[in-house]
Amino acid sequence: MALLLSLLMALVVISYGPGGSLGCDLSLNHDLVSKGNLVLLGQMMRISPSLCLDDRKDFRFPLEVVDGSQVKETQAISVLYEMLWQTFRIFLTQQSSAAWNMTLLDKLRTGLHQQLEDLDSCLVQETTQAEPALGMKDPTLAVKRYFSGIRLYLKEKKYSDCAWEIVRENIMISLFLSTNLQKMLGM
């Protein structure tokens, strides 16, 4: 499992291209903050995932929401924003403060908040330009369901160390997968 996480981290570093523009003003270091958040999530590992095999859970990440061919550009920013917002909410809880190294947790919270602020202006532009999506599913609902399942899992597991480890690992993977949308948007 440690090898898998190491490979994932290596992919993070090489998969990001230079930050671009999607018609809104993102801070120049948005790309760096995104990479940094993934690195922080990797550094936050406190226990070996192999000790948590009994706690493993498939939260059924909705891959279609990060597939650039299935999500319209006008929806992509909403999906990215929702993923970051839901991640921020999970790591903002009192239970997360008890579970993680506070220095790393504070850095992660700051990075997520910065990304949300960067995307906020893009989100406003997107909602004014969005076409009515008659008969189309809102991909942010799938993201909300995914994170709702994570919160329920943490509660059921009484916020155990293994539950947090499984959640950290899953969120790290989901944020890594969101790089497909960021590439599609030229971020």
Write the layout of secondary structure elements.
Elements: H1 2-15, H2 30-43, H3 73-92, H4 94-99, H5 102-129, H6 139-156, H7 161-177, H8 179-184
Helix pairs in contact: 1-2, 2-5, 3-5, 3-6
Structure description:
The chain is mainly alpha-helical and 187 residues long. 66% of the residues lie in helices and 0% in strands. It is built from eight helices and no strands. It has helices at 2-15, 30-43, 73-92, 94-99, 102-129, 139-156, 161-177, 179-184.
Low-pLDDT stretches are 2-22
Please, what is the average pLDDT? 82
**N-to-C SSE string, H for helix and E for strand:** HHHHHHHH
Counted by DSSP, the helix tally is: 8
Tell me the overall shape.
globular
Q: How many extended strands? A: 0
Helix vs. strand class: mainly alpha
List keywords for this structure.
mainly alpha; 187 residues; disordered N terminus; single chain; 8 helices
